[in-house]
Design goal:
Shape: globular
Strand content: 15-25%
Strand order of the largest sheet: 3-2-1-6
Distance between the termini: 42 Å
Number of helices: 15
Helix content: 40-55%
Number of strands: 14
Length: about 425
């Protein structure tokens, strides 16, 4: 497993502070996880300059033996500002659970609980685990909205909220009790603050020029191609035609969203995929459909349009997925990965996993896993984030497993009928 050190922000009683987190890694056959601190103390700094000054000069803390410490200690000040996925508002959790448990609320709470579990384990904070174990809702957050729908789901959410209202001070107090801001070398701090100021000026110059970094200006805008009539038809129905290439085989299927929930053209949780658009069209015009989309109000219109030749199966670029080669590219490293292809691949795997209620697969792409962290860095590049270091064998292997799980759900050309 790749060893990384990630800047994170914790929102606590004293305000927001920065520290470093080393997610789980293996060394000499043992599993490790650590935060920047020493003995009983967790170090938290008010700004990136203070954090930079400390890590460049300190010779006594718990991350010195980490395999990537030499790299982390050389990070620039702006690289020590956490990205949005690694900002955890601990004191804000009571406000969060007062919201409706939608996809955004649950995603934020899931990540916050995950980092709290890590802090509890690494820093031996039994009080945090006691609170998080007091309501079953905390353990099913990663299941998403479906875990909190209906009467049972509403009860789970209310029980979780009640625990937060009654006992969240225990979590905050446990963390406040170990937080320390150590002294930093004065000269190193002056250097880091000057560095931060220079970076801020450079960013303002770029912003004021009206040109984003990495943007190439063109004398004239490219003309957008007109949307194909068949694609417009599918746009109007709310059902997507998908073209998927996986295992050196290309197939076509359908998907729609009911609210936030993806629904694929499937029978008994097996996605029906066809080796040609024509083969899928023949399946769509069956008079007694038994698949998952047959109950859609728009389905008779889709069938009629295909029967009468007014619509054909066609996938737009936004729904054309190619999973082949991504594992090999991930193994080579971020620079070798096609960002657009990976973004689409993640969308497909997460949608399919969500549709079949495979929460393990969904969690495997979460920001708290090495694969999820690598994917996030590729899809949402940010100079403030530290790029993971090779090798990427574990991440590539984890991706391959997710693809294999997806492939196992495909039923080609109605072979099971």
């Amino acid at each position: 497993m790749t060893a990384d050190i990630i800047p994170i922000e914790l929102g606590l009683t004293r305000g927001n502070g920065l520290t470093l987190w080393a997610p789980r890694w293996y060394e000499d056959g043992e599993e490790w996880e650590a935060f920047l601190g020493h003995e009983e103390d967790l170090y938290l700094f008010p700004a990136a300059a203070e954090l930079a000054a400390f890590i460049r000069t300190s010779t006594e803390h718990d991350l010195l033996d980490h395999p990537e410490w030499a790299t982390a200690a050389r990070l620039l000040v702006d690289e020590l500002n956490p990205d949005d996925d690694h900002r955890f508002d601990i004191v804000g959790v009571p406000d969060l659970v007062a919201e409706v448990p939608d996809v955004w609320t649950l995603a934020t709470l899931t990540d916050t609980v995950a980092i709290l579990r890590s802090l509890a384990e690494v820093c031996d904070l039994e009080a945090i685990d006691n609170v998080l174990d007091a309501a079953p809702g905390f353990s099913v957050l990663s299941a998403g909205e479906q875990a909190f729908t209906g009467r049972a789901g509403e009860r789970l959410w209310n029980e979780l909220g009640a625990v937060v209202v009654d006992r969240w001070d225990e979590v905050v107090d446990a963390l406040d009790g170990i937080i320390t801001t150590p002294e930093v070398d004065t000269d190193a701090l002056v250097t880091a603050q000057a560095e931060a100021a220079a970076i801020a000026v450079a960013e303002k110059v770029v912003e004021g020029s009206g040109v984003s970094e990495g943007t190439t200006l063109s004398n004239e805008d490219e003309d957008e191609d007109d949307r194909d009539e068949d694609l417009e038809f599918w746009d109007e129905t709310g059902v997507d035609c998908l073209e998927i290439t996986v295992g050196e085989r290309t197939g076509w299927t359908l998907r729609c969203y009911l609210g936030e929930d993806p629904v694929f053209l499937s029978v008994a949780d097996r996605i029906q995929i066809f080796s040609s658009p024509e083969a899928l069209e023949n399946y769509l015009i069956e008079t007694d459909p038994q698949h998952s989309l047959a109950s859609l109000a728009v389905w008779p219109d889709i069938r009629s349009a295909v029967v009468e030749g007014e619509a054909a199966v066609m996938a737009g670029p936004e729904n054309t997925y190619s999973l082949d080669g991504l594992a090999k590219d991930l193994l080579a490293g971020p620079e070798d990965v096609d960002r657009d292809q990976l973004t689409l691949g993640v969308e497909l795997l997460v949608d399919a996993a969500t549709a079949r209620d495979d929460q393990e697969a969904v969690e495997a792409l979460g920001s708290s896993t090495p694969l999820g962290n690598l994917v996030s860095i590729i899809i949402k590049p940010d100079p403030a984030r530290m790029t993971p270091s090779p090798p990427f064998d574990d991440e590539a292997a984890a991706w391959s497993i997710l693809v294999d799980r997806f492939v196992a759900t495909l039923e080609w050309d109605g072979e099971g009928r």
